[in-house]
Amino acid sequence: MCSPLLPVSNKIRSLLPSDFNSILKVINDAAQAYKGVIPGDRWKEPYMSAEELKGEIEAGVRFFGWVEGGRLLGVAGIQALKDTTLIRHAYVLPGCQRRGIGTRLLEYLIDLAETPEILIGTWADASWAIRFYEKHDFKLVSSTEKDRLLRTYWNIPERQIETSVVLRITSSF
Ligand SMILES: CC(C)(COP(=O)(O)OP(=O)(O)OC[C@H]1O[C@@H](n2cnc3c(N)ncnc32)[C@H](O)[C@@H]1OP(=O)(O)O)[C@@H](O)C(=O)NCCC(=O)NCCS
To answer: Which atom from ligand 1 is nearest to the alpha carbon of 98?
Structure first.
């Protein structure tokens, strides 16, 4: 059960190596939303392995989390690349979704970004996630542009490129 939202300032923090297992749990619990929705050949359990998460952190994804009462309820990562910023792996525990935690984490990461452009990739079939990002002014890019961006900035298999979309926001500092 989740209590009413508390102020952002003391709820969001940078996650530490000691949070590793909690991050994995939030991701894998929340990713159950994809089961039966994304193409069957893209689903696996656990959705993200410890090895994959370790690889993402080593590749430069910095995770931030929403913590209440010592419990991690939501996570989102940011990856600064040379000329763009990726927001990666945004997940909120199933019982805590739709209370604004994802929004607060997203806004926090947008503020941290040091490039005008921010990109987010998600499954084409995850309509709720696309709506969530569109509500925050991210716009879907064309299919050709999506292929180019995913090949340039992500390290994912061709089949994932086929079944994903990319959303972009460009801010003026
Ligand atoms: C997408 C996600 C990170 C958003 O976090 P959140 O804390 O639930 O989001 P917020 O409460 O800030 O915003 C809620 C909005 O997101 C969208 N949304 C989130 N979950 C939804 C759901 N299950 N069904 C429909 N819309 C949903 C809606 O637009 C919703 O607005 P509404 O409640 O006014 O209709 C979270 O729902 C989640 O972890 N989902 C499962 C995993 C996932 O899709 N991750 C995205 C990876 S790219």
So the answer is: 11
